[in-house]
């Protein structure tokens, strides 16, 4: 019998006929973090168009801020990027301090730096661990999360809470560092290094991992900037924009650290940049811990804005009055509007705050880095396959709490 | 950071820049609504501000009618020089503003959010839908006259064009789509959970207990 495949010499005839299909992915799909819906237009398995729909985790952060006092915003900021809440706490505190023109003690700034960088470590570690896990590599996920738990142990030791610290205050931090802070922080660094090395050994030469990340989800630098991307997404395309270097705030100009940049802006670059940035964070923490004064206050002493010590409240009339005014009316920044921005876990985390001179914020606008990064996700996905959504979306590190607010 | 930009704007655009201000190191220039896009294009092409940071709005209902109600803000920066600038314009309610999506593509979602939250429509926007809220949402939540405790009507069932699907239950079945009147219910009235039962029994005002109820065996 004649083999019938002779008639199929032309390889185009081997393709099965297909017609465009619309597929709904999420919001309950596990890879969509439960908060994003994608409506995909597919040709076979190729993504022709995608409509990304955020908003499933919208809680009205900005509206809620407009009815409390300035200090009552801190618990809400914890829930923005809930993988690195300390960075949001510090970001908002810096914004209000900029509006007031309030100076904080040097020790507080160092303390904020260290806690913030610890939060960044936890953020990047979670993202890379989850990306690896979503590609089927469960072992690095467990190793990295084990180490992240130790980072959280330190944050718990300092703040009393593992995740939602509410530790920032306008004019300082809620409490000074504990006695063993420096030692316990430095003690886990070897473990972090070790876990990262082991995970990289498992992944960086793994054919499956490389095939699914290299050259997938690429973005050009011009597109990334026009789309408003910041953070790792922008740096992975080769643009060295890090707020800590470009517009140094706090004491970041005193530390020696590098800004890792990628080349292609694909998933692989984002993954590698995250790990490298994590090492830089440890470098910053080491320097900050060395430079941090071992004693001194971590709160400003301006009674118009900062709560007096409990002893003052109970023993002096000035303390009692200041406490009463701050609790009943809240602190009152001068009228005006400022935009203050810091490097959050995912990029430029900005707070655009407007005060009308009363104890309640008139408007608190959070500029979420995830929002703009997620917007660029469409560009990354077009032309790729359905299966590429998983690593691409994972490496964007979209955090629903921050994106949808 | 923005001082040089302000000087350049005043030199090249002259009367287009209505006001400038500086507060705690933030520089802001106010332009008329009709010049909104022109200034954005000038920033992008002449000042190399290729990086859009944010577009947002503030609602000042009390300053009407002397000044328009909304203040629209744009923040952009230049990757090359590192300069930052904030541009503001004032918009009345229901007044259209030129969309900046053709200047920076990243303005797309930002403008959709401003439309969703404040109800400022953008002219020339390719896809002006709600983004954080759902399509049936009534009102614009970040306006100052939107009460924070406002309840929204429940959405019965959404038809999607081009898809064939059946609603899980008809209008007269299942849970009611209206809000439960708890005051009436606590006063002993309106205890029917489902309107369908009420329709079947001709408005029976009693609650059926059992036979699945534990204490009736």
| Element-level helix/strand string of chain A | EEEHHHHHEEHHHHHHHHEEEHHHH
Low-confidence stretches of chain A: none
Largest interface: A-B, 44 and 36 residues
**Helical proportion of chain B?**
10-25%
Biggest β-sheet strands, sense, barrel of chain B: 5 strands, mixed
Strand order of the largest sheet of chain A: 1-2-3
Low-confidence stretches of chain B: 194-205
Helical run tally of chain A: 17
| Element string of chain B (H = helix, E = strand) | HEEHEEEEHEHH
The major pleated sheet of chain A works out as:
3 strands, antiparallel
Calculate the terminal CA-CA distance of chain B, rounded to whole Å: 78 Å
Report what the structure shows.
The complex is a heterodimer of chains A (405) and B (217). By secondary structure, chain A is mainly alpha-helical. In chain A, a hairpin with a 4-residue loop joins strand 6 and strand 7. The termini of chain A are far apart. Chain A contains 17 helices and 8 strands. Chain B is of the alpha/beta class. Chain B has 2 domains: 140 residues, NADH:ubiquinone oxidoreductase Nqo5 subunit (Beta Polymerase, domain 2); 30 residues, no CATH class. In chain B, strands 1-2-5-4-3 form a 5-stranded mixed sheet, covered by helices on one side. Chain B has a two-stranded parallel ribbon with strand order 6-7. The radius of gyration of chain B is 26 Å and the shape is elongated. About 6% of the residues of chain B have low confidence.
């Amino acid at each position: 019998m004649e083999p019938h495949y002779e008639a199929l010499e032309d390889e185009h005839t081997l393709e099965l006929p297909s017609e465009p299909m619309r597929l709904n992915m999420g919001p309950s799909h596990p890879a969509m973090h439960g908060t994003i819906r994608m409506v995909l237009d597919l040709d076979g398995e190729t993504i022709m168009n995608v409509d990304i729909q955020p908003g499933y985790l919208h809680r009205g952060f900005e509206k809620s801020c407009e009815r409390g006092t300035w200090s009552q915003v801190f618990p809400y900021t914890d829930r923005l990027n809930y993988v690195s809440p300390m960075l949001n706490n510090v970001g908002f505190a810096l914004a209000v301090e900029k509006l007031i023109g309030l100076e904080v003690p040097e020790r507080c700034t160092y303390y904020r730096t260290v806690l913030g960088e610890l939060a960044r470590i936890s953020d990047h570690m979670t993202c890379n661990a989850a990306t690896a896990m979503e590609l089927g590599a469960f072992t690095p996920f467990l190793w990295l999360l084990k180490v992240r738990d130790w980072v959280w142990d330190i944050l718990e030791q300092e703040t009393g809470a593992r995740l939602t610290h509410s530790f920032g205050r306008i004019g300082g931090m809620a409490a000074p560092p504990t006695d063993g802070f420096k030692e316990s922080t430095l003690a886990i660094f070897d473990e972090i290094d070790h876990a990262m090395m082991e995970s990289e050994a498992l992944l960086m030469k793994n054919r499956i991992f490389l095939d699914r990340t290299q050259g997938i989800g690429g973005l050009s630098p011009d597109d990334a900037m026009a789309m408003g991307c910041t953070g790792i997404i922008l740096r992975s395309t080769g643009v060295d924009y890090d707020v800590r270097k470009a517009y140094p705030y706090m004491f970041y100009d005193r530390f020696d650290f590098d800004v890792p940049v990628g080349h292609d802006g694909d998933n692989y670059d984002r993954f590698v940049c995250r790990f490298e940035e994590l090492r830089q964070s440890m470098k910053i923490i080491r320097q900050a811990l060395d430079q941090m004064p071992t004693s001194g206050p971590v709160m400003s002493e301006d009674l118009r804005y900062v709560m007096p010590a409990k002893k003052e409240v109970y023993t002096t009339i000035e303390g009692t009055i200041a406490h009463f005014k701050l609790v009943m009316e809240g602190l009152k920044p001068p009228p005006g509007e400022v935009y203050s921005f810091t490097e959050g876990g995912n990029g430029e985390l900005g707070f655009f705050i407007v005060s009308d001179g009363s104890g309640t914020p008139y408007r608190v606008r959070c500029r979420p880095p995830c929002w703009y990064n997620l917007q660029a996700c469409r560009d990354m996905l077009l032309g790729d396959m359905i299966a590429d959504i998983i690593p691409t979306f994972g490496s964007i590190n979209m955090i629903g709490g921050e994106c949808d607010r | 950071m923005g001082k040089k930009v302000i000087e350049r704007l005043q030199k090249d655009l002259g009367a287009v820049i209505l006001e400038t201000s500086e507060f705690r190191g933030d520089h802001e220039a106010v332009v008329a609504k009709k010049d909104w896009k022109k200034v954005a294009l000038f920033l992008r092409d002449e000042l190399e501000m290729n990086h859009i940071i944010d577009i947002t709005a503030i609602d000042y209902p009390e300053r009407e009618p002397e000044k328009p109600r909304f203040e629209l803000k744009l923040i952009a920066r230049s990757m090359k020089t590192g300069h930052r600038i904030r541009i503001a314009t004032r918009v009345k309610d229901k007044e259209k503003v030129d969309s900046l999506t053709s200047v920076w593509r990243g303005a797309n979602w930002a403008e959709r959010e401003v439309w969703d939250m404040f109800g400022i429509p953008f002219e020339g926007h390719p896809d002006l839908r709600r983004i954080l809220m759902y399509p049936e949402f009534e009102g614009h939540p970040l306006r100052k006259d939107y009460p924070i405790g406002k309840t929204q009507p429940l959405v019965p069932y959404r038809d999607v064009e081009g898809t064939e699907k059946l609603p899980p239950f008809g209008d007269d079945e299942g849970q009611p789509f209206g809000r439960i009147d708890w005051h009436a219910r606590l006063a002993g009235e309106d205890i029917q959970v489902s309107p369908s039962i009420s329709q079947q029994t001709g408005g029976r005002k009693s609650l059926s207990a059992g036979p699945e109820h534990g204490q009736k065996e």
